[in-house]
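Ticket closed. Logging final result for DUF3991 domain-containing protein.
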Amino acid sequence: MYYRMSFPQAVLDITKGDYKELSQSHEQLSVSPSKEPFRYPKELEVKGQSKVKDYLIKERKIDPRLVDWLLQKDLIAQDKRNNVVFKWREQEGKGKVIGVDRQGTASIKNKRGSY
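Final structure:
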């Protein structure tokens, strides 16, 4: 997509090793930024963190001390759908939330993985 090539064209280009110079500027190819700044929906968080802790510690085998530290520093949270919310913060974990990633904690039937 970055070079505006179809998938077969991109595979052929990579396997040949015949790399072309990008004729358009990077700004023309990038997605235009959102008109409004990101607003973190804090109201979707819940106070209990049990699903998040169970998922990260028991399922993903992450050290409980690390999970507790992340919760204490407000770098992760549990939302109303029991997803783990990984917060992107300004200034190395301090400041306002500028983005998030979500990871589901429950398996989806007939599907691999979770939300």
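Residues 42-103 form one domain. No further action required.
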